[in-house]
Amino acid sequence: MSIKIVTDTDGFLSIQEDWERLQELDDELTYYSTFQYNYAWWLTFGEDRNNKLFIICCSRDNEMVGIAPLVIRTVDKKIVKCRVLGFMGKGDYFNFILHSQQGSPAAIIKEIFKAIEDHSDLWDKIELTHLATDTSLLHFLLRHDRYNPSIKYLTSCPSIRIGGWDTAAGWDTSGINAKAKKKLRKLQQETDYQFKMVDCRQSGDIYDRISNVHKQEKAYLHEQRGRIDRRSLFEDQKNEEFYKRVFMNNDQVIASFLELEDSNVMIAYQLFFLHRGKLYGWNTGYSPDYAKYGVFDVLMLETIRRLIEQGQVTDIDLGAGSYPWKFRWTNQFTVMYSLQLWNNDRLHTRLYRMLVKGKGILKYLNRKAAVHS
Fold this sequence. Notes:
Blueprint: E1 2-6, H1 9-14, H2 16-25, H3 35-45, E2 51-53, E3 55-60, E4 63-68, E5 70-76, E6 81-87, E7 97-98, H4 105-118, E8 125-132, H5 136-142, E9 151-161, H6 178-190, E10 193-199, H7 206-225, H8 237-247, E11 253-260, E12 266-275, E13 278-286, H9 295-310, E14 315-317, H10 324-327, E15 332-342, H11 347-372
Parallel strand pairs: 6-8, 13-14
Antiparallel strand pairs: 1-3, 2-5, 3-4, 4-7, 5-6, 8-15, 9-14, 9-15, 10-11, 11-12, 12-13
Helix pairs in contact: 3-8, 6-9
């Protein structure tokens, strides 16, 4: 097998045909590994000089059989800089793109990691996150003496299996959150809401509408709930640019939402990526004016009902994070792991780790002193 490493935008665009061919052949692929999504991310965040492309392409008999969509990010700690090799993009699932139907995936992954090790002078740390339990990549890392000790639990992605449910057979009494039905009835009685589910080709203004709701929710949580940690991803200029690229005329971006029937007021929304019959949830928001109704539970019920009626979606992935509300809807989940491997052969890397550890100890001591003061 032969290796080619893509390091510029022209090279990225030149592998589009191979990437899109492979993504149709890879059984493990999620929306977060598609060319469209990753290219949109690079066009936005590639402008940052601290992000450098490092896409490893593996070929067999002049045919591309594997792609590792990586970047090298420079983290500047003023005194020392750290170059981190990791996946490009934002998301809950990351993976290599492999021709899993031709030969052994492990053989392709082995060649990719050989290329990574051969270029160890370019990185101080490997940080591969959101590796799902049932992937060839995680299996390769777990069985490898060098990488296994650096694999750690990261989080989980709960999911709801709806394939095979029937609205006429009492689906909403079979394992679905019972309290949510009471909330639905109350909202129906006190507001004249309607439920909609659209894609971004059908609704051109959906981005601006959900962005406004999310910003309102953040302000409400700050002022009324003391949640000063709450952020809105739509307030970051680069995030806005990226998501607008993703949203543009994209029928794989799905929004389900509640709105008042006689106005354009949005009560709550949830955003998904649709890929191979599975919805990947990635953002939610609600209007503070309707917080007392538990509107997100109502939205979930309406969304599930619509999906069962349409019969085209088999699963709803609720996204990364083991939050209690997710497990009130399901007992199914995918465990995610990460690889964090330092390049300790470099003095530069050892110095960086000492600096970070020293700052951590200092913060801990300051917190202890504050508690006892």
